[in-house]
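Page 47, continued from p. 46.
Same chain as before, 309 aa.
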Amino acid sequence: MSSAPCIGVLLCMHNGEAYIDAQLDSLAAQRRRPDHLEIHDWGSTDDTPSRAERWLQTQHLPAVLIRHAEAPGPCASFVQALEQFLQRYPELTHVLFCDQDDVWHAARIEAYARVVSATEGPDLVFSDLDLIDARGTRIADSFYRRSGSPFRWPVGLDGADVFLVNPAVGMSMMLSRDLAELLVQHREAPWPMHDWGAVMLCHLYRRSWQFVPKVLGSYRQHEGNLRGATSARGAVASVRRLRDRVRDSDRLVRWCAAHIPRTGARDQVPSTRWQAMRCAAGSQNLSVWYRVVLSSLLMLFWPRASSRD
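Result:
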């Protein structure tokens, strides 16, 4: 059995006053407290940082609030904050991403600590979630098994389809220090989002992962979501996101060819439209309807000239 992990929570926020109290209270209610908590506010103009400051005054947690003048973007903000977090606490062995608008269940950190304490890994842990609306009302009991979900149960990170669709929700993820440092090392990559970048790096560098088939958090769906839950009923926004993602795929393929050591995993990165379509059609993570939608968008929008070289 490995030694006890040193677990840090990294919370990034920006104008999140409507939801930040619920998230902070769920951190305080954790049965296994984080060893370090770092809260980064990226240029909020509302009451978000003041709420966090008042909350910190009532807690007995090893926590700090760091305020930045402005945000370089959601992906860059998290990676920049992660780099600082790792530098300040060299004893950290694992880091959990925390968004401002979700709610963690009380057993979350405890469950993840049990997973990494009982094994030699894994480098990435993620779990199932339930869905709540803006008011906190539950709207689905499972992110993966709800009606209209784009995913099949259970999901995994072994397939090359992780370069097309991210099956791990960022707010449910915990990274080993090794994987977190890889993400910082590759900060200049054209990742769609920081959490998706961690998933791709986990695959490319053949790091271990584990899916916890328990609901350990509430993923809030509201109008301000950058990336919310996809459903068959509300696919318009999802189609637009997928279209934009497909159009950017060429940059990511070229970046991988230039910066990732040549491995069998890197060779799985789809570098042509037909490879991407075969990858989508054969995905073990995606529901049939979503494979059809994704394959169609790949046919329409994949860059005409794409090469690894």
